[in-house]
Amino acid sequence: MVVQISSGQGPSECQLAAAKLFEALQKEYKDLRNVSYTKGEEKGCFHSIRFETEHDLSGLEGTVLWICQSPFRRNHRRKNWYVDVSIIPGLTEISADKEYRIEKFHCGGKGGQNVNKVETGVRITHIPTGLVSQSTEERSQYQNKQRAMQKLQEKLDCLQQEQKEIQVNAAWREHNRIVRGNPVRIYEGEQFVLKKVGTAKDGRN
Asked: Does the structure show a pLDDT above 60 at 115?
């Protein structure tokens, strides 16, 4: 599962809350692996942090509230700082030789009466995605297999790139969306102490 913590368009206090929330979750879930992050304006602050985990953290999706006097603006009246937790679509693995189906077929065209008696054409299907490529350009079956595999790999690379773009676009949309009210968790103070957990389960195993 890929999870993103985002401060949205919030000020440095929200960016600090994003960093503190990630640290708090690292203590709860030991397998968190940082995938990417965007640093904020102040040291130790982040606009967004994206990480992977084997735990189901779907119950954490929503808004997290940090109640604290601003550590950057001591006379600032505001004490409520919000960050967003979102589940980002993961990338599908599209490899492994055993996931391919290879078919041989007769090649038609010029070449005399014996041309259709030899199976030289090769068609390869990537079973999980349904992508198909074939080659009849080469003289030997081995060469056509190599050419068809190359074509298929190009299609798989394009599909993988499309998935990455979908993930990035989803992350960007979530970065700009913070819904205030009914937070799934509330933390208080500079020590970032958990004070309240919302009605949704937090998915801990």
From this structure: no
* DSSP letters for 66-127: EE---SS-TT----EEEEEEEEEPPPPP---GGGEEEEEEE--SSS-TTGGGSEEEEEEEET
Please give the Cα distance from 199 to 183 (Å, whole number): 10
> Average pLDDT, stretch 86-96?
64
CA separation for the pair 101, 157 (Å, rounded): 18
DSSP state of 167: H
Whether pTM > 0.85 for this model: the answer is: no
Tally DSSP H helices, then E strands, for the chain. 2, 10
pLDDT band at 200 (very low <50, low <70, confident <90, very high): very low
